[in-house]
Amino acid sequence: MWNWKITATSAALVILVGLAAISFGPINLSFAKILKSLLGIHGGLSGQDRTVLIDLRLPRALLAALVGAALASSGAVYQSVFRNPLADPYLLGAASGAGLGATIAITNTHGDIYRLLPVFSFVGGTLAVLTSFFISGKFFAEPQSLLLSGIAVGSFATAIQTYLQQRHSASLRPVYSWILGELTVANWQIVTWSSFYILMAIGILFLVSKQLDGLMLSDEEAFSLGINPNRLRVIAVAAATLATATAVSASGLIGFVGIVVPHLVRGITHRVTNRNLLTVALTGAAFLMLADLGARTLLSPAELPIGVITAFVGAPFFLIVLRRRRTVQS
Hints:
By secondary structure, this protein is mainly α. It has one domain: ABC transporter involved in vitamin B12 uptake, BtuC, CATH 1.10.3470. It has 13 helices and no strands. Helix 4 packs parallel to helix 6 (143-167) and helix 5 (113-135) runs antiparallel to helix 6 (143-167). It is globular, with a radius of gyration of 20 Å.
């Protein structure tokens, strides 16, 4: 059952964290003037402060929200499809494929790298997942075979990526910066195209969210409930992968969001996260905007890769979840 109070709280949290994200930084902006600027009321920001808000912080905060929502929603869906609470949005090789695509863009293009990088990484992530589907002949009978194919494809893509990095050592720094996740190149163009694919993918996941609980059962039980598990898996994995590939191509590799947020929402609501997918998406948006705020301010005026912040929070969280799962099983 949908709990509108928790969803409303998540939405309020997104707004509060979003205001903090666009207010604080090397240059602090007034809350009141920000609101006036956003609402078009006289007395808002002007000059350099307005430029910082409109051209830098606002698109960056929106991109962080989109990427956070995409990774969190995809994580919840992957955990249902593979019946594994530790499943991650990057399982099917999307991250490794996108990393290979980004490495090819950085090491072999001489024009506007950051214009081509999202395209290359999106194509690389998508091709890696499609290859995993192609290799996995037993996907419909056993979802775990797709997972294993994804691991193999991801390892192969990582090997090629490492080879390219060694051949082009001068490009190591931008490659590693992208691998650790970055939102420094956020602009309205990236926000526009990424929002189209991410919102479309999340919308599809919302439409099938009520049926996704059936994937936690055996296929025979799912059929008895009127659910076609094979078709539902394809739809769910395709939509989640589209969201993940788009998020990775726009921001680089940002880990642990797809594990931390679904478990956090599940712990608060005590419900299967598919029934609270909107809450998961909103919480993911707030989580990543908060992480990005920390990345920008903790070592100001220097900046940490956002992946470092999410790993700092997510790695201990992952170990706690793993330990609890082993305790329950024993």
